[in-house]
Amino acid sequence: MSGKGLFISFEGIDGSGKSTQARLLAEALERAGHAVVLTREPGGSDGAEEIRALVLQGDPDRWSAETELLLFTAARRDHLERVIAPALTAGKVVICDRFADSTRMYQGLSRGDLRDKVDALHRLMIGIEPDLTLLIDMDPAAGLARAKARATAEERFEDFGLSLQQDMRAGFLRLAEEFAARFVVIDGDRAAEEVAADVLSMVEARLP
Ligand code: ADP
Ligand code: TYD
User: Fold this and answer.
1) Residue 94 in contact with residue 84, Cβ under 8 Å?
2) Which residue, 23, 79, 86, 124, is the most exposed by fewest CB within 10 angstroms?
3) Dist. CA 201 → ligand 1 center (Å)
4) Chain-centre distance for alpha carbon 14
């Protein structure tokens, strides 16, 4: 599905260390001579970054759950067309901080039971899954404390509190079982360098 390149996503609750690990992995692979595209969702292309501002800033109840799902999917479609697909076709390693599994969790679970609609839209409009998904798993209270320590203008789902984070952690672990062929669960509750070493060994095993 993903052409000649390797498509890697990072998933996990807010504050679990996805962005940190995505960056460390990109640096390690670049040092090893790979062509790497480091990107993120929502966002990653100009249009998708505009949609990111619409979904993550302002009143959290600004959009219904269904509208929000459409906006995240629209952002992903633009990101896929303009950034991810061309990079994979060119044989690059694409490292994406969150992808469709986040929609399965946040729109599919947290704001009502929309999982069927999430999957239907994904099939219709996106159609690819990562080759490898690294789930950075950790205690939700610790993740939330880390996430809260960052001050940003974005209204994130972390603002919904600890019980949502607990549901999200359990949901991500269920997704890892559902898509066992591409998921690897990594203990994120360790020093960043230790986590990064595990991540790199998982990725190296899948590189051509
Ligand atoms: P995410 O992208 O999953 O929300 P980040 O990578 O942005 O997580 O990390 C959240 C915060 O925790 C940041 O301030 C980051 O510097 C810090 N952090 C990341 N990894 C670790 C780690 N292994 N141990 C302690 N703090 C970390
Ligand atoms: P992100 O910037 O990755 O947040 P963090 O670094 O705190 O993990 O993502 C922003 C928020 O967007 C996050 O709370 C999860 C949410 N999100 C969705 O609800 N659906 C999606 O499809 C994606 C990609 C993210």
Assistant:
1) yes
2) 124
3) 20
4) 10
